[in-house]
Amino acid sequence: MADVAVVTLNWNGKEFLPDMVRSLVARMEGGDLRLIVFDNGSTDGSDRMVEEEFGENPWFSLVRSEENLGFARGANTVLSGLEEELVVLANTDVVFEEDSIDRLLETLRKRPRAGLVGPMLLWPGGSLQPAKRDFPFPGKLLREHLPLLRRFSAKHSPHDREVSVDWVVGAVMAIRMKAFREVGGFEESFFFYHEETDLQYRLWRHGWEVWFQPQARVVHLEGGSARQKYGRDSYLYYIPAKLRFLDRHGTCCSVPMFRVLMTVLQLFRLLLGLLRPGLRRRDNRFTTSYCSRALGLAWSYIGRKADEVKKG
Predict the structure, then answer these.
(1) What is the reported pTM?
(2) CB-count burial class (<10 Å; 0-12, 13-18, 19+) for 286
(3) Angle between helices 195-205 and 238-249 (to 10 degrees)
(4) Which end of the chain is more exposed for a tag (fewer CB within 10 A), N or C?
(5) Which residues contact 35 (CB under 8 A, 6 or more apart)?
């Protein structure tokens, strides 16, 4: 058995998956890591593509699901069968820079209360992609969006030092499995988006820490799988995910306050889009269609308990 398992969940990742695996080859040949590709019901042949290229390597294995289980359920399925105590869970749309995995693992090993560690994320051109976040409660979201206050938010703070944070963007997560098992893994009612936020909040509630490690650098082609499934409006689906998070972990006022905040934001974007047609053409978030759909998602959420009753 390898000391550490690197796990990636693939759904129609033909455009991204091969580059992600290639970025790991040199590190995998050390013998103390293995790679598991969990294919989430792909139909584009991406699973066969990587199996043909890497399948003969002793560190590579491929597990297939006949259906798309979503990220949370798929991750729970593959992680539950692992014996390794340290796991690096990565999206397919990332490319690891040299020593990045080792930097993440070093941080877990030197900090016994660290349940999860995330790297610095970069856009393909090399610019910073903010990876540190505050939990998405309405007050913190308001601070993140207001120009005079946003510098006090984790997202807009400097990303130049190792620091404990609320949560990190889940493109790459080095996970201590003891902590993961203690909190029950991913909450499977999150199909896509904010499942990592929910996990890290529960880690925090159980006394575990989440750390950001800027010396681990990973290029992230953000939203690759999401765009394939939902198109260019994939960011809309953060809205029901945030509502589900607030419904689970917020106060009785959290969901109404978020709806008010979202309504003000979308009306402001709609007004800007009407006043500046060029902005509307460059960014679809300022279009009438996007804003109306965003408001529909914000106000149509029926709540976790009602949703469970409806499904049951």
Answers:
(1) 0.91
(2) buried
(3) 20
(4) C
(5) 5, 6, 7, 8, 21, 24, 28, 54, 59, 60, 61
